[in-house]
Design a protein that fits this description.
Shape: elongated
Strand order of the largest sheet: 1-2-3-4-5
Strand content: 5-15%
CATH architecture of the largest domain: Alpha-Beta Complex
Number of domains: 2
Radius of gyration: 20 Å
Helix content: 40-55%
CATH class of the largest domain: Alpha Beta
CATH topology of the largest domain: Aspartate Aminotransferase, domain 1
């Protein structure tokens, strides 16, 4: 993850997409949204609510709509990057500068802004139970200090660590992850605290 502190820094690190990023940013700046940096990338907000993000990757540059599920998408431009996982977020990818239809992009952006003003958003569903994977349970049972530290973490941080272990497909990866997070748990640090 890039640790940019300004939009200019983000743009300078993505020289291969400079022109496309400038075009998209130019369109976004014509709106009433506020430009910020979150998670190292440009994010555009209305009333401190994330509406659109701007990103650059190896094979494409794109914008993502945080509540894109509510967009009409008559032109069929939007993708759900993680089908079955991502509920509201939708991406629009551009592989060349010529793919950017400024009027169409602005139409989608204006619709996203209006949807945000209208309060259309998917609220995250919070699960009450935390399923702790067996590898983590064994480690907690074997180390009283680790168990005490884990229990003192917020439910959110406990869930983050549990999911981090559980999502590894190979046992070796789960064990490597467990070794990595044990000192963090002992220090009372959440898995992704450095990004918050």
């Amino acid at each position: 993850m890039q640790k940019n502190t300004s939009v200019e820094e983000f743009m300078s690190k993505n020289k291969e997409w400079k022109e496309a990023l400038e075009i998209l940013r130019g369109i976004l700046l014509t709106t009433e949204m506020k430009e910020t940096i979150k998670w190292g990338v440009p994010v555009y907000t209305i009333n401190d609510k994330n509406v659109i993000g701007l990103g650059a990757f190896k094979s494409y540059v794109g914008i993502w709509f945080y509540q894109g599920v509510f967009l009409e998408d008559k032109a069929k431009k939007l993708l759900n990057a993680q089908e079955g996982k991502t509920k509201g977020l939708r991406q629009w990818r551009f592989t060349t500068v010529d793919d950017i239809d400024k009027d169409l992009v602005l139409h989608y952006i204006k619709e996203a802004i209006q949807n945000q003003k209208d309060g259309k958003e998917i609220k995250p569903v919070k699960s009450k139970t935390i399923e702790i994977p067996k590898e983590l349970l064994v480690a907690l049972d074997a180390n009283a200090n680790l168990k005490k530290s884990f229990e003192q973490l917020t439910p959110f941080k406990q869930r983050e660590y549990s999911e981090y272990i559980a999502t590894a497909k190979r046992e070796a990866t789960r064990m490597t992850r467990l070794e990595k997070i044990s000192p963090m748990i002992l220090d009372g640090i959440g898995l992704n605290d450095k990004y918050r």
